[in-house]
Amino acid sequence: MINIGKNIEEYLPPEILTLVKAAGEIAVSRGQSVYLVGGVVRDLFLKRRNLDLDLVVEGDALPLARQLAKGRDGKLVTHPRFGTATFKYGAYSIDLVTARSETYPEPGALPTVKPGSIQDDLLRRDFSINAMAVSIDPARFGDLVDPYGGKSDLDRHLIRVLHQRSFKDDPTRVWRALRYEQRLGFRLEFDTTTQLRRDAPIMERISGDRLRHELERILEEDYPEKVFYRGERLGVLRNLHLALMGNGWLGEHFDMAREACGSPKPNKNLYLALLVWRIEDEALKNFVERLKFGGDAVRVLRDIPLLKQAIPALAASELTPSGVYHILEHHRPETILAGALVTDSALVRQRLELYLSSLRFVELSLNGDNLRRMGVPAGKKMGAMLKALKEAKLDGKVITREDERKLVRSWLKKGKR
Ligand code: ATP
Which domains occur in the chain, in start order? Predict the structure, then answer.
């Protein structure tokens, strides 16, 4: 039996280590066993930071979670229906779940779940490197449970499924496999590659919500393009959506996105806009429906064809800033930035950037009330004047509040507008 108690003590910060040890003590006092499982064990060996700890309890996890949280300065959220709890403690998020076994009634369907042992719980997992557990019971603290050779696969940099049916049971594992492979710089093990290719078409049966969730998790990676590119080379990107492309263009533009945002993690919707930029309008519509996008993402995705239509007008040689503003005012900033990264025209790019960096923030100092007090009657005339005033400001003809007042006065004097 390998014991990695020392590694845990070095890996976890003192207050989290204390918490973990307390979980072990509570479990024993309740006649249960508890383990650190999954990603945190993998990352502990790899010396990678991981702020999400998964604790698996042989027995009911909820009373243990409640006892653990009691008197501690954190936030406990319980899900009695699922017998799970999450304890937010400082920067850490600790999930406590009851060990369970899962069986899949049919490929791609959700599993049937029942309580089980730690061995059962490891068997339901995706890859050997994620299927290790470490006991945190006081008498066995640090004992490694590794029935599928996870440590050896970690050492050999391999992503390996636990059994032949793995991708059939849950085709979202195709994307999980590629994410880990690319994130960690590992390789898919030979049989795993064959099975992944064979079973990827079953992704068709997965609900849009589950598929979108996988896509969103890819977009949270440091280099999402690597996952798409690998998916394309393996011939499985088409199973996420037929029209997607993951070649070098994508990498180049994701790089530009990171640079433009000055951040290693640009807005997810900007990545999304670039991912689908080259897709035809009809296919894009189908993509949005299939993956059931909602909220801001759907607004950005639906804006893409509209912005593409608007862009040629931005190439006109004579175009004032207010003209640029009117072309872009109803479009989404993420779509506009994607357009700026994609366009071949320096002039168009410059105008898109002008809108993003300044025009969209231009506000008048005067409002309707101010104009009314200056003698402008409410109604159509007021609306037209506010619009003209905003255009003057966008075009740099007025700058200060006093400039605005002067311009309004001059219009009133002339009886214009
Ligand atoms: P990440 O660093 O990406 O969060 P993680 O390993 O913590 O990695 P989670 O998605 O949080 O990943 O899942 C936690 C654990 O649950 C995994 O390590 C794995 O053992 C298991 N798991 C998650 N999703 C699946 C799945 N679809 N099939 C089988 N096991 C899974």
Answer: 1-156 (3.30.460.10), 162-293 (1.10.3090.10), 295-361 (no CATH), 368-414 (no CATH)
Cα 38 to ligand 1 centroid, rounded to whole Å:
7
Q: State the number of CA atoms in the 13 A half-sphere of 261 facing the CB.
A: 18
pLDDT digits (tens, 9 = 90+) for 156-175: 999 999 999 999 999 999 99
Q: How far apart are CA 188 and CA 153, in angstroms?
A: 10
In this structure, which residue's CA is closest to atom 30 in ligand 1?
125
**Sign of the alpha-carbon torsion through 192, 1, 142, 119:** positive
Atom of ligand 1 nearest to the CA of 54: 14
Atom of ligand 1 nearest to the CA of 180: 3
> Which band of pLDDT confidence, cut at 50, 70 and 90, is reported for residue 416?
low
Q: What DSSP letter does each residue of 131-177 carry, written as one string?
A: --EEE-SGGGTTBEE-TT-HHHHHHTTEE-BSSTTHHHH-THHHHHH
Q: Which amino acid is at 332?
A: R
CA of 54 to the centre of ligand 1 (A): 10
Is pTM beyond 0.85? Reply is yes
- Centroid of chain to Cα 97: 24
